[in-house]
Each structure stands twice: as C-alpha cells, then as structure tokens.
Amino acid sequence: MKREEISKFLDPTKAFSEGVAFIEEFDPLTGAVCRINATRAARPKQQLGKTVETPVAKCSFCQPYIDTSTPKFPKDFCLDGRIKHGGAILFPNLFPLTDLHGVCVFTPQHKLDLNLFDAGEISDGLFASIEFLKAGREAGAPHHLLGWNQG
Ligand SMILES: [Zn+2]
C-alpha cells in the first residue's frame, strides 16, 4: 500500500511563496510503515563521530539569519508565520516527514550544548512547543511532529 501526504509551508528558498513537500508512506515487504521525503537527501550531512561547529555568523538558526532562512507556516495555521514565546521560535521543517512538522529553536543565542540553556530558555521552548501541539490538534493534523533544534 502506498499513500502520499502533502506538507505546505512558506519556503524561504522561494521568497516565502508556498512550498509543498510530498511525503510517501508505504510498506512494501514487512507491513511496517515507512515515511520518505526524497528532498531530505539534499540536506547537509553530518559525519558520524564528528561535531560540526557552525560559526554563529553562518548559523541558520540564529540572528540575523533565522528570519530569512527558516520557513513560515501558512497564515491559516499561524498568522505570524512562526510561533514565538520569549526567545523561542518555532517554524515548519524545510524537509518535513509529515503534513505538519515543526522545528523549535529555544533561544536566539548560538548554543550547542544543552547544559548551556538556562531555565527561562527551556521554559520558552516548552511553551512554544505546547502552542504548536495545540494548534496542530485544532488544525486536525493527526500526525504532527515536532523537533527541537539547538540554535
Ligand atoms: Zn546558531
């Protein structure tokens, strides 16, 4: 059985015009469900065992790039395009695995180690995540997914 799902977002690589990702779901041999978004193959790869230190000046998840390099939700899901709480920003995944796939960056600060986050930053990220999950439920997205990313 093969099924295709569509994820819509405002694509920063196309001047925030509507982007569409196609996610395939099938179970060719085992009956297990597998989700594939072929565009994920184009993402930058991290080598196993190596920590990639992105300089803050080039980080897509930090200012000044986060506003121009990350997607926005369609206005019928989020009027402002992104969910914000304190310093946390939550936006659609550019390479989604489901119809509603968010990414939450907890702080505008470039922090790569979890032990560097303070309680306020964790709280901001959790509140933004809760708002996303509520909005997903209200939008009727049965399989919404949320990832957290370090800025
Ligand atoms: Zn960063």
Structure description:
- The protein has 151 residues and is an alpha+beta fold.
- Helices cover 16% and strands 27% of the residues.
- The chain has a domain at 48-149.
- It has two helices and seven strands.
- The strands form two sheets. A four-stranded mixed sheet has the order 4-5-6-7, covered by helices on one side. A three-stranded antiparallel sheet has the order 1-2-3, with no helix packed on it.
- The radius of gyration is 16 Å and the shape is globular.
- The N and C termini lie far apart (39 Å).
- The model has no long low-confidence stretch (mean pLDDT 86).
Secondary-structure topology with pairs:
Elements: E1 2-11, E2 17-26, E3 34-36, H1 66-69, E4 83-85, E5 88-92, E6 101-105, H2 119-138, E7 145-149
Bound molecules: zinc ion.
Zinc ion binds at residues 56, 59, 61-62, 110, 151.
